[in-house]
Amino acid sequence: MKRENMTCAFGEESYFERIKDSKDPIKIRLKVIEYLEKCKSISETARRFRVSRQIVRKWEERYREKGIEGLKDKAKTPKNKRTVLTEEIIELILKLRKEYNYGPRKIKQLLKELYNINISEHPIYNVLKTNGL
Length: 133
Description:
mainly alpha; 2 domains; 7 helices; 60% helix
């Protein structure tokens, strides 16, 4: 069985070079999925479109789950909002540190038990570090 010509579907451009100038990346990703369905080989599809096999698998999975919507770019913003500490909470952290000489883990526990304030250890550590404690 003779292999078909393995030139890239985009000529000499890689997917990422092509997508940079594209107005509609979904169409290009859809072409990748259509080619995959036709040839049934993730490796061949990846070579033909000059992308990694992982990318082809990711797009295939998203396409199977959500259709064309799955091929859209996902937001790159963090899922969790950053903890904003008020001056009162910062004062409480510093007071607990000076009074008991506890670290971030124990201060977190005390804030929850005594003041019903639930924050993670990292912001507490940052407050202590900023204040030289």
